[in-house]
Amino acid sequence: MTRKSFKAQPFAYHQEIELEITTLTNHGVGLGRVALADDLALGAGDLDLPAAKAAGWVVMVAFALAGERVRARIFRNHSNYSEADLVAVLTPSPHRIAARCPLFGRCGGCQYQHLAYTEQLRWKRQQVRELLQHLAGIEFAVAPVVASPQQFGYRSKITPHFQTGKRMPETGREPAIGFLRQGSRYEIVDVPRCEIAMDAINRRLTEVRADVRANLAAGAYQRGATLLLRAAGGVVTTDYEGVITEEIPVAVLADGPGSAAPTTGTPLRLRFLARDFFQNNPFILPAFVGYVCAEAAAGGACHLVDAYCGSGLFALAAAARFEHVVGVEISETSVAFARENAAANGIANATFLAGAAAAIFAGLTFPPGDTAVVIDPPRQGCDMAFLRQLFAFGPQAVVYVSCDPATQMRDLRDFLAAGYALTAVQPFDLFPQTRHLECVITLRKTA
User: Fold this and answer.
1) 42 Cβ partners below 8 Å, 6+ apart?
2) How far is it, in rounded angstroms, from Cα 438 to Cα 407?
């Protein structure tokens, strides 16, 4: 049955087609091209037919892998591409493996459980290279992706959702408690266990789901909600205001991304609220933080500014390398914890300020030529108010950390125009089995 809003060109609703998948997008979706019929121009509306007929019409197929021939069912036509569900893999990729999670393909949390881990890393590196080309307009050598020491059971935080009054379509039982269904903005898949979450979280999840079910049966909820489960040291909290303590081996912080964690060493102890932002893969965190700190100090800067500093992760980890460190964060609770963390770790050369990152450079007394800046903005990247002040200050080096390489490479164009040169691109796989990737780029002032 055709949906009223469905565009009927170039394919009918739920029309099945066969195609070769040639690549993976940075969203982890298989991409292939098909030839269109010569008579399609009649009633084709706003389709970009000349380009489509020259290169082939693009079809996106989730969970299909490069090199595969697949049968796919069309569910949406756009002006220059179509989206389709995977019906069958006719010729599988040699890198296709069995997914560990029985919900893979329905739950929208993971995109790559069917792809061998070495290939996940290779494709993520390729996707960063392509983003550099397409969004920043440059060719640059991307370092191999630093692998996560743990490929499953690594997440220290999950946020399942539930809705009231909506029973699960599969069973008709109580509302689902889990994550959004693949390709849906509203429907939730019931998830009794998450394979990429820590074991301690999964054990606690069983109890939390039982509590929610009992409360649903008692009519305790007027609307749906998002739950929080966050783990540290084997303890799981479900309280948004609960305090978490993470420990990072300090000895690793002086080494590169390929170093092995020592069995002993003094840890950097950081406390923060469970609801506040903190990286969710503690297994790769020492290598990741160590690389950022080493890149910031590599140019010989005496001073460090940590914008978007949170509870002080980068600032405190790098403090021993600099004469003075300033961290800035808009969240006052995070700043309070950063100050407490500095005192608790005996770090006296770090100052933390509450305020927007865009306002820090006007009152900064550090000489720009002796200052490095670490930035770790939200997923949407840096706003222009911040970038203008950063460029006006003109630090000798900027280490840009991002969980969305697409917005990072968009911002890179502004850095290049402002007289910065790209010197390193290092991806880290903080999110195995998913399309997500953390990327660190280093920029040095040249003009």
Assistant:
1) none
2) 12
Active-site choice (68, 195, 438, 439): 438
pLDDT at residue 261, as a whole number: 39
The residue segments making up the domain with residue 74 are 1-96
Residue type, 443: L
Residues 367 and 435 in one domain: yes
Q: Which residues of the chain have pLDDT under 70?
A: 1-4, 39-54, 165-173, 250-266, 357-358
Phi first, then psi, for residue 133 (nearest 5°) are -70, -50
Q: Write down the pLDDT at residue 409.
A: 97
Q: What's the confidence (pLDDT) of residue 5?
A: 77
Residue 103 has a pLDDT of: 97
Token pair listed for 431: 């999110």
63 with 146, same domain: the answer is no
Instruction: Please give the pLDDT value at position 195.
Output: 98
Q: What is the pLDDT of residue 217?
A: 84
Q: Is residue 403 among the annotated active site residues?
A: yes
**CA dist., res. 64 & res. 72, Å (int):** 9
**Rounded to whole angstroms, how far apart are CA atoms 333 and 240?**
13
pLDDT at res. 266: 67
Looking at the domain assignment, is residue 338 inside a domain? yes
Q: Enumerate helices (H) and strands (E) in the chain, giving the number of each.
A: 8, 21
Residues 146 and 65 in one domain: no
Paired residues of 189 in beta bridges: 179
CATH number at 75 reads 2.40.50.140
The active-site residue out of 101, 107, 194, 403 is 403
Catalytic annotation on 293?
no
CA distance 143 to 55: 31
- pLDDT score recorded for residue 264: 40
Same domain, 129 and 6: no
Q: What is the per-residue burial (b if ≥16 Cβ within 10 Å, else e) of 419-431? A: ebebebbbbbbbb
CA distance 350 to 323: 9
Based on the domain organization, do 136 and 77 belong to the same domain? no
CA-wise closest residue to 136 among 402, 432, 327: 402
